[in-house]
Amino acid sequence: MSSTASKLDPDRQLPSSGQRSSCYHKGLNYLTNSPKKADRCSSRTKNGKFPDTTNTPLRNLALCRKPPGSVSPAKRQINEVKETKTTVNCVTFPLPGEGPEQQLLKPNEWSYCDYFWADKKDPQGTTHVTGFEVLLQKQLKGKQLQKEMAEFIHERIKIEEEYAKNLSKLSLSPLAAQEEGTLGEAWTQLKKSLHDEAEVHLKFSNKLHTEVEKPLLTFRCDNFKKDLKKYDHHIADLRKQLASRFAGVEKARKALADRQKDLEVKTQQLEIKLSNKTEEDIKKARRKSTQAGDDLMRSLDLYNQTQSKWFEEMVTTSMELEKLEVERVEWIQQHLRQYTTLRHETDMFNQSTVEPVDQLLQNVDPAKDRELWVKENKTGEVRPVDLDI
């Protein structure tokens, strides 16, 4: 869709009533019967003016006109205007396969500004949701999912804190505290490593809070929803204006149809002499019909200008929402990567708490432990001998 193509000059001068002819009414006749093609009028000459028939006798003009039904089917088919556009919810679109193929505004990017022009029915199928409302819902849903991610990290933090607390408590357990020797040293170091590991997990939970959870919670907290409402109201107001302009076009179209019908009836009465209407009466009817045609063209201009404005604002605002979504995704990506970094660091620190335990376990020597234990707990080196009588 091209905004340039839909702009019309609001100050353009329409031809005076003296420059209209019955050809003008014939040219506008299909406008009243074809709501999708109200932007055509074939009665103008190459210089943009209408032929001057002010001084042409009305009876001569009337004699040139054939009564309804006198046109042959073949000729009537030739005169029919092929529909190439359709209007849905007051927005005008080209029919499939008609006119030049539209090019995407941002090819190969799947940009918001290319895919959300039409309305669609809500899940219940009762009302229509505009494409812009779909984009707004995406923003609100993204905000909610971001909040849920923060809640998930918060639960992870609680687990880490509880785990650290239990590790620290377990490290103080008196179980197997009387183990001796090299094995006893390894066992003592193992219990101490639990305390060290508890400290690592406690630091991990604190960093998760400050470097992951909090940024996710605070991202776009201030005025974000207010800004979305401004976008919503702005585009919605333009759609209301567009609906009002389209209603004006339809009203003007009906008024033109009524004026043309009145002129047709009076002309036919003049042809068959069923009425004593003067030529002045028919001139008056023609002027009214011409004025109705002018009103229709003005209404059409206003509609196209309003649709052009809506189109431009839709492109600008949808690309702004697209930018906001990219920022949101990149922000979450950045802080989830920080989570994995902290997790790797935690693993490394945990490994460092286990390394002393590994070393002591490698040094466990049952023979040495036996020696130490025997030296400390021996009851005597002299062995028993046989009893003599």
Q: What are the low-pLDDT stretches, counting only 5+ consecutive residues below 50?
A: 1-80
Calculate the mean pLDDT score and round it: 81
Structural class call reads mainly alpha
Strand tally is: 4
Shape estimate: rod-shaped
CA distance, first residue to last residue: 127 Å
Distinct helical segment count: 10
Biggest beta-sheet profile: 2 strands, antiparallel
Strand order of the largest sheet: 1-2
- The CATH topology name of the domain at 131-365 reads Substrate Binding Domain Of Dnak, Chain:A, Domain 2
CATH superfamily of the domain at 131-365: Arfaptin homology (AH) domain/BAR domain
Rg estimate, integer Å: 44 Å
Per CATH, which architecture of the domain at 131-365?
Up-down Bundle
The CATH class of the domain at 131-365: Mainly Alpha
| Share of β-strand residues | under 5%
What is the H-and-E element order?
HHHHEEHEEHHHHH
**What is the percent of helical residues?**
55-70%
